[in-house]
Amino acid sequence: MFYRFDTAVPLRWVDVDSAGVINNAVYLSLMEQARYAYFAHLGLLEGHDVPFVLAESTLKFLRPGRLGMEIEVAVTTTKLGSTSFQMSYEVRSGDHVLCTATAALVFVDEQMKPTALPDNFREVVIQFEQMDVE
């Protein structure tokens, strides 16, 4: 998969288990940090508000990550729906892919009810990702 955005996400001591391997739950945090950086890069997080929530995620672990590795997470938006959107990720160290993942995210209002994707959000993502518009 082609990714237009990636970012370094440093590991912390607490991110690894007693064998020095990155805990599997930490990968969601690494992707969350990268997702925040992605949308901040696109200028879509006014006042640091995140108007969407994670609804679903699927991860595939390919090789163990270890403390001391330089971690980079690549992020792309793959699909835009009416209230939700899909993203894909690669967690990498050097030339090695440690984990791939997909996620579904949903825009919500103050009562946490699904709401339409804002037009500006849709336009900026389509332009950045060079998506074909149907």
Instruction: Tell me roughly what share of residues is in helical segments.
Output: 10-25%
Radius of gyration: 15 Å
What distance lies between the first and last C-alpha atoms, to the nearest angstrom? 21 Å
> How would a crystallographer describe the biggest sheet?
5 strands, antiparallel
Number of helical elements: 2
Spans with pLDDT under 50 lasting ≥5 residues?
none
Which descriptor suits the 3D outline? globular
Q: What is the average per-residue confidence, as pLDDT, rounded to a whole number? A: 95
Strand content: 25-35%
DSSP E strands, number: 5
The helix-strand sequence is EHEEEEH
- What is the spatial order of strands in the main beta sheet? 1-3-4-5-2
Structural class, please? alpha+beta
What does this structure look like?
The protein is α+β, with helices and mostly antiparallel strands. The chain has two helices and five strands. It has helices at 26-41, 119-129; strands spanning 5-8, 52-61, 72-80, 84-93, 96-107. The protein has a five-stranded antiparallel beta sheet. A hairpin with a 3-residue loop joins strand 3 and strand 4. The two termini are 21 Å apart. The mean pLDDT is 95.
